[in-house]
Amino acid sequence: MRVAVYPGSFDPITLGHVDVLRRALGVFDRVVVGVLVNPKKVPMLDIDTRVAVIRSGVGEALADQAARVDVRPFAGLTVDACRELGARFIVRGLRAVSDFEAELQMAHMNHRLAPEIDTVFFMTALEYSYLSSSLVREIVRFGGDPAEMVPPSVAERLAAVAAAEGALARVR
Ligand code: PNS
Q: Is the pLDDT of residue 172 over 70?
Protein backbone atom coordinates (compact mmCIF):
# COMPACT_ATOMS: atom_id res chain seq x y z
CA MET A 1 0.00 0.00 0.00
CA ARG A 2 1.59 3.26 -1.12
CA VAL A 3 0.60 6.05 1.26
CA ALA A 4 1.48 9.71 0.69
CA VAL A 5 0.92 12.83 2.76
CA TYR A 6 -0.02 16.01 0.91
CA PRO A 7 0.77 18.72 3.50
CA GLY A 8 -0.18 22.37 3.28
CA SER A 9 -1.92 25.32 4.82
CA PHE A 10 -4.92 25.02 2.47
CA ASP A 11 -6.32 28.41 3.52
CA PRO A 12 -8.37 27.70 1.42
CA ILE A 13 -7.94 24.63 -0.76
CA THR A 14 -7.98 25.71 -4.43
CA LEU A 15 -8.71 23.89 -7.68
CA GLY A 16 -4.92 23.81 -8.16
CA HIS A 17 -4.57 21.77 -4.95
CA VAL A 18 -7.43 19.52 -6.09
CA ASP A 19 -5.63 18.99 -9.40
CA VAL A 20 -2.41 17.97 -7.61
CA LEU A 21 -4.42 15.63 -5.36
CA ARG A 22 -6.07 14.03 -8.40
CA ARG A 23 -2.66 13.40 -9.96
CA ALA A 24 -1.30 11.99 -6.70
CA LEU A 25 -4.23 9.55 -6.53
CA GLY A 26 -3.09 8.21 -9.89
CA VAL A 27 0.18 7.12 -8.29
CA PHE A 28 -0.59 6.39 -4.62
CA ASP A 29 -3.16 4.05 -3.07
CA ARG A 30 -4.04 6.47 -0.29
CA VAL A 31 -3.35 10.17 0.09
CA VAL A 32 -3.65 11.92 3.44
CA VAL A 33 -4.21 15.66 3.07
CA GLY A 34 -2.38 17.06 6.10
CA VAL A 35 -3.69 20.48 7.10
CA LEU A 36 -1.11 22.44 9.07
CA VAL A 37 -2.10 23.93 12.39
CA ASN A 38 0.27 26.88 12.53
CA PRO A 39 0.03 28.83 15.81
CA LYS A 40 2.14 31.64 14.27
CA LYS A 41 -0.40 32.50 11.56
CA VAL A 42 -3.99 33.72 11.81
CA PRO A 43 -5.74 31.91 8.97
CA MET A 44 -8.88 33.13 7.20
CA LEU A 45 -10.47 29.72 7.80
CA ASP A 46 -9.90 28.08 11.16
CA ILE A 47 -8.51 24.55 11.20
CA ASP A 48 -11.87 22.78 11.61
CA THR A 49 -13.35 24.77 8.74
CA ARG A 50 -10.34 24.09 6.50
CA VAL A 51 -10.63 20.35 7.17
CA ALA A 52 -14.40 20.42 6.61
CA VAL A 53 -14.24 22.34 3.31
CA ILE A 54 -11.42 20.14 2.01
CA ARG A 55 -13.58 17.09 2.72
CA SER A 56 -16.60 18.61 0.99
CA GLY A 57 -14.49 19.98 -1.89
CA VAL A 58 -12.85 16.59 -2.48
CA GLY A 59 -16.30 14.99 -2.37
CA GLU A 60 -17.49 17.40 -5.07
CA ALA A 61 -14.42 17.40 -7.31
CA LEU A 62 -13.10 13.85 -6.92
CA ALA A 63 -16.23 11.94 -5.86
CA ASP A 64 -15.13 8.57 -7.31
CA GLN A 65 -11.74 8.76 -5.57
CA ALA A 66 -12.77 10.28 -2.24
CA ALA A 67 -12.63 6.94 -0.41
CA ARG A 68 -8.84 6.93 -0.90
CA VAL A 69 -8.44 10.43 0.54
CA ASP A 70 -8.14 11.16 4.22
CA VAL A 71 -8.13 14.75 5.48
CA ARG A 72 -6.70 15.52 8.90
CA PRO A 73 -5.08 18.37 10.80
CA PHE A 74 -1.50 18.10 11.97
CA ALA A 75 0.88 20.19 14.06
CA GLY A 76 4.65 19.92 14.12
CA LEU A 77 6.91 18.42 11.50
CA THR A 78 5.52 16.99 8.28
CA VAL A 79 7.99 14.08 8.45
CA ASP A 80 6.70 13.16 11.93
CA ALA A 81 3.13 13.16 10.60
CA CYS A 82 4.32 10.92 7.72
CA ARG A 83 5.95 8.48 10.12
CA GLU A 84 2.84 8.33 12.31
CA LEU A 85 0.70 7.61 9.26
CA GLY A 86 3.10 5.09 7.73
CA ALA A 87 3.61 7.32 4.68
CA ARG A 88 6.87 7.13 2.73
CA PHE A 89 6.03 9.98 0.38
CA ILE A 90 5.30 13.69 0.62
CA VAL A 91 3.32 15.22 -2.24
CA ARG A 92 3.80 18.83 -3.29
CA GLY A 93 2.65 20.79 -6.32
CA LEU A 94 4.79 22.98 -8.55
CA ARG A 95 3.03 25.78 -10.42
CA ALA A 96 5.99 27.61 -11.88
CA VAL A 97 9.77 27.91 -11.64
CA SER A 98 9.26 30.44 -8.85
CA ASP A 99 7.96 27.64 -6.58
CA PHE A 100 10.99 25.48 -7.22
CA GLU A 101 13.61 27.07 -4.99
CA ALA A 102 11.60 26.98 -1.78
CA GLU A 103 10.23 23.52 -2.56
CA LEU A 104 13.70 22.13 -3.28
CA GLN A 105 14.99 23.50 0.03
CA MET A 106 12.04 21.98 1.89
CA ALA A 107 12.43 18.61 0.12
CA HIS A 108 16.15 18.46 0.97
CA MET A 109 15.48 19.43 4.58
CA ASN A 110 12.73 16.83 4.93
CA HIS A 111 15.03 14.22 3.40
CA ARG A 112 17.74 15.17 5.88
CA LEU A 113 15.25 14.78 8.73
CA ALA A 114 13.79 11.53 7.39
CA PRO A 115 15.91 9.84 4.70
CA GLU A 116 13.32 7.09 4.22
CA ILE A 117 10.72 9.64 3.02
CA ASP A 118 10.77 10.99 -0.53
CA THR A 119 9.07 14.14 -1.81
CA VAL A 120 7.21 13.69 -5.09
CA PHE A 121 6.28 16.76 -7.14
CA PHE A 122 3.35 17.08 -9.49
CA MET A 123 3.05 19.90 -12.01
CA THR A 124 -0.16 21.82 -11.43
CA ALA A 125 -2.24 22.05 -14.62
CA LEU A 126 -1.41 25.16 -16.64
CA GLU A 127 -4.95 26.50 -16.22
CA TYR A 128 -4.39 26.71 -12.45
CA SER A 129 -0.79 27.90 -12.53
CA TYR A 130 -1.80 31.45 -11.58
CA LEU A 131 -3.84 30.36 -8.56
CA SER A 132 -2.81 30.74 -4.95
CA SER A 133 -4.68 30.61 -1.66
CA SER A 134 -3.50 34.12 -0.77
CA LEU A 135 -4.90 35.58 -4.01
CA VAL A 136 -8.19 33.75 -3.46
CA ARG A 137 -8.42 35.23 0.05
CA GLU A 138 -7.77 38.71 -1.30
CA ILE A 139 -10.33 38.36 -4.08
CA VAL A 140 -13.01 37.13 -1.69
CA ARG A 141 -12.28 39.86 0.86
CA PHE A 142 -12.74 42.52 -1.85
CA GLY A 143 -16.05 41.03 -2.96
CA GLY A 144 -14.77 39.08 -5.99
CA ASP A 145 -16.19 35.74 -7.07
CA PRO A 146 -13.85 32.74 -6.58
CA ALA A 147 -16.13 30.30 -8.45
CA GLU A 148 -13.46 29.40 -11.03
CA MET A 149 -10.80 29.00 -8.35
CA VAL A 150 -12.18 26.77 -5.59
CA PRO A 151 -14.77 23.95 -5.32
CA PRO A 152 -18.38 25.25 -4.93
CA SER A 153 -18.82 24.51 -1.22
CA VAL A 154 -15.49 26.22 -0.50
CA ALA A 155 -16.64 29.34 -2.40
CA GLU A 156 -19.84 29.38 -0.33
CA ARG A 157 -17.97 29.13 2.96
CA LEU A 158 -15.45 31.80 1.94
CA ALA A 159 -18.25 34.20 1.06
CA ALA A 160 -19.82 33.64 4.49
CA VAL A 161 -16.50 34.18 6.31
CA ALA A 162 -15.72 37.30 4.26
CA ALA A 163 -19.19 38.69 5.05
CA ALA A 164 -18.66 38.03 8.76
CA GLU A 165 -15.24 39.73 8.62
CA GLY A 166 -16.82 42.71 6.86
CA ALA A 167 -19.58 42.99 9.46
CA LEU A 168 -17.00 42.84 12.25
CA ALA A 169 -14.90 45.56 10.60
CA ARG A 170 -17.98 47.85 10.31
CA VAL A 171 -18.74 47.41 14.03
CA ARG A 172 -15.16 48.34 15.04
O1 PNS B 1 0.65 25.36 1.81
P2 PNS B 1 2.00 25.76 2.32
O3 PNS B 1 1.86 26.89 3.31
O4 PNS B 1 2.96 26.08 1.20
O5 PNS B 1 2.60 24.49 3.09
C6 PNS B 1 3.82 24.55 3.77
C7 PNS B 1 4.01 23.29 4.62
C8 PNS B 1 2.82 23.06 5.52
C9 PNS B 1 4.17 22.08 3.71
C10 PNS B 1 5.31 23.47 5.45
O11 PNS B 1 5.28 24.70 6.09
C12 PNS B 1 5.49 22.37 6.48
O13 PNS B 1 5.79 21.24 6.14
N14 PNS B 1 5.26 22.73 7.75
C15 PNS B 1 5.32 21.78 8.85
C16 PNS B 1 6.57 22.02 9.70
C17 PNS B 1 7.77 21.37 9.03
O18 PNS B 1 7.82 20.18 8.80
N19 PNS B 1 8.76 22.23 8.73
C20 PNS B 1 9.98 21.80 8.07
C21 PNS B 1 9.79 21.79 6.57
S22 PNS B 1 11.32 21.56 5.80
A: no
